[in-house]
Amino acid sequence: GKKMTEVRDLVEEMVGTEVLIRGRLETYRHKSSKLGFMMLRQNGFKVQCVATQSEETKVSVNMIKFLKQLSSESFVDVIGVVVLPKEPVKASTQKVEIQVRKAYCLNNGFPQLPLLVENAARSEADLKAGKAGADQYTRLNNRVIDLRTPANQAIFRIEGHVFFAFIEFLISKRFVPIFTPKLIAGSSEGGSAVFKLDYFGQPACLAQSPQLHKQMAICGDFGRVFVVGSVFRAEDSFTHRHPMKHGHLCEFVGLDVEMEIQMHYSEIMDLVDELFVFIFTKLNERGNEELEAVREQYPFEPLKFLPKTLRLTFAEGIQMLKDAGVEVDPLGDLNTETERKLGQLVLEKYNTEFYMLHRFPAAVRPFYTMPCGDDPRYSNSFDVFLRGEEIISGAQRIHILEFLEERAGECGIDLKTLETYIDAFRYGAPPHGGFGVGLERVVMLFCALNNIRKTSLFPRDPQRLAP
Ligand code: 4AD
């Protein structure tokens, strides 16, 4: 009948009191028939539990024998007294340790584990010091065990903070949360990167983005909407030669926004600015403990960002690259390499790792993007970069029916699958625009992680459909 205490809540103020805790047995060190050390882990927090045979603790030699044969990762309930360790315990996340009185195991023995959490949790420094590690492939194959590391526990809680701050901010600005269909008739972004499927005899596909339906919701008079949900991309850029292309998944979490605008696409950029300064600030406040846990395994510097986000035009970006000796097509697109390079130049010149680039060439944007009024070679569009990589793309959309049909034609879009989308503009649409964010990219780059699979709970790539 004793109430459980969570491992994360074990603090110095509790010294001297008896507690009941539950955790997984990460490691057991057997010193002698009279002394054993358990490292118990719960949700990424760890505490050392010491079992000594003595008059005072009433722990028997048999109990220590019992602890010795437990499989690692077993669930163990421990009743014990909170004490201060003689010296800090390195692997523990808590300042206190537990003097064991009683221990109960909740499982039977396991077969040998395919992955040890200890090994999955190694930092670069641990590995350099010669400790056994685990490669990413093995870790992803055994993701359920891999997820138990303190860094992974933290990464997905950080994702939760971003998700929550995104919603919190938008709801406060009267945006309406909507849910758009993931089964749709055709490509929404143009191009061939779609998963095709058979919908009762009719060709269909998994939505590449909520683009079409979030715009149709605007035509349905919701004014401002947002969507959080799975987005599917049959990333054809993956090849067997580049199986680990680092920023791309075949399924990711999209955070999408669409809104009416008064007159200019800068209104959308203003929202991105406010929203992301809010998200980063909240993340640093609410997610401080988790960020620290990520840093323990994957060290990184805090993100440099400005209270008012820097905006550069695409042409200015091209000029900066040119001045640095990098030649890029002024009416073409950037690639991963030139984006990184520009990120470095921006950091040197403006001391920020978060900025927006706008007025992209129209030719490199989807058909629904509004061209610039003063020069149709460019468009009212933008990308947002975090540590040199794209996390957001957005734009003002074409809201005039005839113009939309014309642009779709010019872009070689098959209008058959877009009929009802085009119809939405037939009966009047307001000027509007929006943007899409990739959640896994935001967290990957905020924490300067080297692979997007680290921020996807169960990542999907061309070579992985399980677990
Ligand atoms: O740049 P994308 O393709 O833009 C759209 O989907 C538009 N409908 C957005 C809009 O409202 N105009 O995707 C938006 C974001 C990217 O900036 C990136 O963060 C993420 O989605 N993203 C991916 N994340 C992981 N894996 C992939 N394969 C991704 N493709 C895009």
TrEMBL record:
It is found in: Cytoplasm. One of its GO terms (cellular component) is cytosol. It catalyses: tRNA(Asp) + L-aspartate + ATP = L-aspartyl-tRNA(Asp) + AMP + diphosphate. Keywords: Aminoacyl-tRNA synthetase, ATP-binding, Cytoplasm, Ligase, Nucleotide-binding, Protein biosynthesis. Residues 224-459 form the Aminoacyl-transfer RNA synthetases class-II family profile domain. Belongs to the class-II aminoacyl-tRNA synthetase family. Type 2 subfamily. This is aspartate--tRNA ligase. It comes from Eutrema salsugineum (Saltwater cress). The chain holds residues 162 to 628 of 628 of the full protein.
